[in-house]
Amino acid sequence: MPKITDTQRETRRQQILDAALRCFSRDGFHSTTTADIVRESGVSQGTLYLYFATKDDIIVALADDRRHGEALLNALAEAEQDPLDGLGLLLELYGRSLDDPGRVDLRRVSVQGWAEALRNPAIQASIVGNTRAVQAQVARLIERGQQAGRIRADVDPAALARTLAAVFQGLTLQTALGERLDLPAVGQVMGEMLRGLFVGAAGEPQAQTPEEHGR
To answer: In this predicted model, what pLDDT tens digit does every residue of 143-190 receive, in sequence order?
Structure first.
């Protein structure tokens, strides 16, 4: 029997996760069974169990995969020489995800994951870990901005990062519920909220938001 390559193994694993995402989005975590995922993915029950021992393992794997994707976005932002450009890049990329039709299932499952985290410690640890990693990256960018004299020194980086994360989570919930967002309008409001936190070269309030600065 020919050996399965690493590429084939990863492809099969992703096939199962994609199918699980569709099932969870359509029917929810508790109503979805591993048999449903098997039918949706086209693999055998035995093949599924080669990759995931339980349904909860699949849920955690979906959260972990999202963390890896977010780590890439964080790295791109950190690579920006100007911290305001990095912060603006993060806001832009996360904002785009709210309006991406290809991420509808992911947004719906993300909201379900928050509820599931209230009863499942493993899922809670994964989701909270993901959120904290993003908040830590945003806080680092804010601290760099303060060191460069671009962001007010009296701003608490951790508190601002947590607030921005809460706004994004709230918008994610609204889109998952079927609300249509006017992202340009939301972005403008966010810019007005942040405007007073940024300073110019002379120490005066910065006229540009992170998004505007990056243009």
So the answer is: 999 999 989 999 999 999 999 999 999 999 999 998 888 988 998 888
d(CA 204, CA 38): 60
What letter would DSSP give residue 56? H
Query: Do 195 and 205 form a contact (C-beta atoms < 8 A)?
Result: yes
The answer to whether 112 touches 63, Cβ cutoff 8 Å, is no
d(CA 134, CA 89): 13
DSSP state of 181: P
DSSP state letters, 11-43: HHHHHHHHHHHHHHHHH-TTT--HHHHHHHHT-
Q: Summarize pLDDT for 55-73 with one digit per residue, the tens.
A: 989 988 988 888 888 888 8
Contact 198, 208 (CB under 8 A): yes
* Contacts (Cβ under 8 Å, ≥6 apart) of 57: none
Question: How is the chain split into domains, by residue range?
Answer: 1-53, 55-213
Structure tokens at 79: 């690579």
Residue 74 near residue 137, CB atoms below 8 Å: yes
Rounded alpha-carbon distances, angstroms, from residue 183 to 29, 76, 98, 161, 186: 29, 22, 8, 20, 5
Domain 1-53 CATH superfamily: Homeodomain-like (1.10.10.60)
CB distance 91 to 190 below 8 Å: yes
Class of domain 55-213 as given by CATH: mainly alpha
